[in-house]
Amino acid sequence: EESMLRAYVGKKAKTLNHMTCSLHANIGSVEDVAVALYYDAEGIGLFRTELLYMGKEQAPSEEEQFIIYKEVAEQMKGKEVTIRTLDVGGDKQIAYLNIQQEENPFLGYRAIRYCLDHQELFKTQLRALIRASAYGNIQIMFPMITAYEELIEAKAMLQEIKEELDRAGIAYNHHMKVGMMIETPASVILADQFAKEVDFFSIGSNDLIQYTMVADRMNTQVQKLYSPYYPAIIRAIHQVAKAAIANHIPVSICGEIASDHKLTNVWLNMGIHKLSVIPSGLLKLKHHICHMHTDNLHMDQLLQANTREEIINLLDK
Ligand code: PEP
Ligand code: MG
């Protein structure tokens, strides 16, 4: 199988009816870049930066981070590299950040909420990212946005740092794109408004399913509800895709469901033409796309389905 899949290296992911999809990789470290390239990633769709902060005594310095982001950008040689700012909290605890025990960590003090309250920590990361943008095609992505104000505040901090760098004569990419994860129901509901403030959306289905279906992604007792095959999830993602298209910004999916072959046809039909998956899933997904048709799915029926079973039946047809 491996050698059959290797034949897809260098080929475009294109369906039999000529619809294309760009396939990006999710990574967690600079070492993962080589793996992503081995599996022919067209870009990095999600660099989870948490790992740089974990297993240490203190937060990585601006210089430490700069070196890593620069290295990733350079190794990707001008291909798109989407770097997500620190997504701490929830299941990702970092001792030295002193987040108190919470009754509901997934509904608590995490990601952008923590970062906006800890400006020194956040600005250190933003400065490293902006400086690294001079060495490749980096774009910044904010996690766990729920309120419009959070996005505006994060963007204002970026602007402030750019002005500081301008005054110091430090180079960076003045056209660097800024996007956000759509992974909370609030961001789905406000997607049309958010789309006017960012350059791209990336759908984080792992959290979006958890928060929309109100089912903990780790709790096996509610595993059945933690599924993309519910109408609420299909409709939520459709709504996000429509908002992105209407506002002419790209939209991708970077959660686990991007590698579910049963759903690829749904995403392409919705106009989502970028998927970001674990490196080892890239060629399998490309092989799948190269053998599929996108005109055999009844989108109207899918969007009108009432139950999980109806969705599954439509996808199995
Ligand atoms: C997601 O929520 O789908 C996502 C990609 O982010 P993470 O899995 O890191 O929470
Ligand atoms: Mg998430």
TrEMBL record:
Phosphoenolpyruvate binds at R48, R84, N206, D207, R217. The keyword Heme does not apply. It catalyses: L-histidyl-[protein] + phosphoenolpyruvate = N(pros)-phospho-L-histidyl-[protein] + pyruvate. The active site is at C254. It is an enzyme of class 2 (transferase). Residues 144-171 form a coiled coil. It comes from the Bacteria. Its cofactor is Mg(2+). Residues 10-292 form the PEP-utilising enzyme C-terminal domain. GO terms for biological process: phosphoenolpyruvate-dependent sugar phosphotransferase system. The keyword Cell membrane does not apply. It is found in: Cytoplasm. Its main location: cytoplasm. One of its GO terms (molecular function) is phosphoenolpyruvate-protein phosphotransferase activity. Mg(2+) binds at E183, D207. GO terms for cellular component: cytoplasm. Keywords: Coiled coil, Cytoplasm, Kinase, Magnesium, Metal-binding, Phosphotransferase system, Sugar transport, Transferase, Transport. Its EC number is 2.7.3.9. General (non sugar-specific) component of the phosphoenolpyruvate-dependent sugar phosphotransferase system (sugar PTS). This major carbohydrate active-transport system catalyzes the phosphorylation of incoming sugar substrates concomitantly with their translocation across the cell membrane. Enzyme I transfers the phosphoryl group from phosphoenolpyruvate (PEP) to the phosphoryl carrier protein (HPr). Belongs to the PEP-utilizing enzyme family. This is Phosphoenolpyruvate-protein phosphotransferase. It comes from Vallitalea pronyensis.
